[in-house]
Design brief:
Elements lengths: L31 H22 L3 H17 L10 H26 L10 H19 L3 H12 L4 H8 L3 H22 L1
Helix pairs in contact: 1-2, 1-3, 2-3, 4-7, 5-7, 6-7
Length: 191
């Protein structure tokens, strides 16, 4: 749980009521004095509420401060001063939800890191190797090429290659061995 900074000691004060006024007239909405007293009395509890919803102290303090600012701006609409604390609590909860939504959206919108990509030189070198491999493969006998393609590019077992080509397992091994030797010779000569 985040560390919450202590608030200055609040002096017990009388919470103004709606009927405060020299002539006894009803005051419309929550007064600034009432909000100030509510701030002194309930700031820490609202900070604790925000701390339960958010994970860092700075965000909690921001949310609570913003809640007081919003309720202060709309204090004329809070007709019953006794409900000021309820409005503040609801505002803290709503602002905490918004903060969490913004974080989630921010994480989703972060550009994903680019995968490790080969440099242009590496790509050109790989292309040359592929071209030389294809050229060397074309120079092999037909059966050698078929065995190597099925064995290493189609990822078949020797038994599967034998069944596919209709030849014995020994022939697959022999064609494969001779084909690899011929490729090594051809690739070594081109390098």
């Amino acid at each position: 749980m985040p560390v919450i900074a202590p608030m200055p000691a609040a002096r017990p004060a009388r919470v103004p009521s709606q009927r405060d006024g020299a002539d006894g007239a009803v005051v419309a909405g929550t007064t600034v004095d009432h909000l100030t007293e509510t701030y002194r009395a309930h700031y820490r509890s609202l900070l604790g509420l925000a701390a339960l919803l958010l994970d860092d102290t700075a965000s909690c303090e921001d949310v609570v401060q913003e809640a007081f600012i919003r309720v202060h701006s709309a204090r004329k609409r809070v007709r019953d001063p006794e409900k000021t604390l309820a409005y503040l609590r609801q505002t803290v909860v709503n602002l905490s939800r918004s903060a969490l939504r913004r974080r989630i959206l921010g994480l989703k919108l972060l550009s994903k890191p680019m995968p490790d990509m080969a440099s242009a030189e590496e790509g050109a070198y790989d292309q040359l190797e592929r071209d030389s491999l294809i050229k060397a493969m074309k120079g092999l006998q037909r059966r050698q090429r078929e065995v190597l393609v099925l064995r290493y590019f189609a990822d078949m077992t020797e038994a599967q290659v034998a069944d596919t080509l209709g030849i014995s397992l020994g022939s697959v091994k022999a064609y494969g061995s001779r084909g690899i030797a011929a490729l090594r010779l051809a690739m070594g000569a081109s390098a």
